[in-house]
Specification:
With 438 residues, the chain is of the alpha/beta class. It is 40% helix and 14% strand. It has an eleven-stranded mixed β-sheet, with helices on both faces.
């Protein structure tokens, strides 16, 4: 019999709604899994087992009609520790905010609860959801980074601590850790999920995202979290035929490690054999400027968001973060405005590119396997353009590198074409030989 912690979000929700599985029984399996591995993975920043069990038992006793009205009734979800949670610590990976308890709850967390789910705990984030690593390790091998900044969310899903979790992406903070941990990470189009109640870093770039172990499961969670449920189907619809894909190396292809290049070529060959039409295409040259544009916007906004706090508590932040924010402080207003204008131009160019009949762009989600270090979170460059563009992006695991660590494939769709992208990713997922950690 399959251990309950192994089942995915769709399966868990279906079993609970049907009465075949009690939320408390499911939670007991998850807590046992956490107790056996959390000492090594360190995915949780805050976890109250008694609170979680009380919520699960309350869900046990809920009437059946009430269950039917809530698609995720009784399912525990991980929540990144940069989402405000009223009455529960929200420390945002920062020494300054140790013990901080907000009096509001982020919109996305409220929607988790309205869907009938409950927050199992707060997952670890890097410092201020930027680049400085925290305590979490990669469940595949504790010597390797889980990526960042949604380190704990990706690791918790990969390890079987929760069937799904939420995180954020300002650069590569959903897609990259999902790729490193061998799970599915999905960042919907910017604005599809509310960012209200998330600790701001770069407000025009900050975007919530979700983690699970299948495309169908991230679709279900994202559907539950959006204010416009018609925009995302709770089940990734089946494509009527094989997709047409644009294999794009992007301006940072030179950063790809040999194992990632080989995996990308193998993914292209396998999908072609399955019937996909794939064109190898260079993205327009104007996108060579995209990474600089992204960094200009990100650091300019982050410096101004943090200015008042740093004026009094600069020593509470790491040297690395302070250095990045100092760079943002010297970016001129005119350069920021120019970057915003260029972003708009690039968005129009990308929309025209995708209008050529492609189901999605496929590209690596990261430079390679997770780095064999806990002092870094890996290079986010393979995600930067798509975050800047506000397009939906998803990574699916497709293989392993020479160190036995996961490698993935990133798919990027047109803005607000969520279902088309999810369906395309599900089609690709069906042709992936990857087997997860659990």
């Amino acid at each position: 019999m399959t251990e309950l912690y192994r089942i995915g979000l769709h399966d868990a929700a279906k079993r609970i709604r049907s009465g075949k599985l009690k939320p408390s029984t499911y939670l007991q399996s998850l807590l046992a899994r956490i107790d056996s591995l959390e000492h090594a993975v360190k995915a949780w920043q805050w976890l109250d087992r008694e609170r979680a069990m009380e919520l699960a038992r309350t869900a046990d006793s809920a009437a059946t009609p009430w269950k039917a009205a809530h698609p995720l009734h009784g399912v525990p979800i991980g929540v990144k520790d940069n989402f405000y949670t009223a009455g529960i610590p929200t420390e945002m990976g920062c020494r300054l905010y140790a013990g901080y308890v907000p009096d509001e709850t982020a919109d996305v967390v409220v929607r988790v609860e309205r869907a009938g789910a409950f927050m199992l705990g707060k997952t670890v984030t890097t410092e201020a959801a930027f680049m400085v690593p925290a305590k979490t390790t990669n469940p595949w091998n504790a010597r390797y980074t889980p990526g960042g900044s949604s380190s704990g969310s990706a690791a918790a899903v990969a390890a079987g601590f929760v069937p799904a979790a939420i995180g954020t992406q300002t650069n590569g903070s959903v897609v990259r850790p999902a790729a490193f941990c061998g799970v599915v990470g999905y960042k919907p189009s910017q604005g599809m999920l509310s960012a209200r109640g998330i600790m701001p870093f770069s407000p025009s770039l900050d975007q919530p995202g979700v983690f699970a172990r299948s495309v169908a499961d991230v679709a279900l969670l994202a559907w539950s979290l959006t204010a416009r449920r018609s925009s995302i189907s709770p089940e990734a619809p089946t494509l009527k035929g094989a997709p047409r894909l644009a294999a794009v190396r992007s301006p940072v292809w030179h950063l790809a490690q040999p194992e990632q290049r080989a995996q990308f070529e193998a993914d292209v060959a396998r999908l072609r054999e399955a019937g996909a039409l794939i064109d190898i295409i260079e993205i327009p040259g104007e996108f060579d400027r995209a990474h600089k544009v992204h960094r200009t916007i990100m650091l300019f906004e982050a410096a101004r968001v943090s200015r008042k706090v740093r004026a009094h508590y600069r020593e509470s932040f790491s040297d690395y973060l302070n250095d990045a924010l100092d760079q943002g402080e010297v970016i001129a207003d005119a350069d920021y405005r120019d970057a915003l204008k260029l972003r708009t131009q690039l968005q129009h160019s990308l929309a025209a590119f995708l209008d050529r009949g492609y189901s999605a762009i496929i590209t690596p989600p990261a430079a390679g396997e997770a780095p064999a270090s806990l002092d870094v979170t890996g290079d986010p460059s393979f995600c930067s353009i798509w975050t800047l563009m506000g397009t939906p992006a998803i990574t699916i695991p497709t293989g392993k590198g020479p160190n036995g660590m996961p490698l993935g494939l990133q798919l990027v769709g047109a803005v607000e074409e969520e279902n088309y992208l999810l369906s395309t990713a599900a089609w690709c997922e069906r042709h992936s030989p990857f087997k997860g950690l659990i």
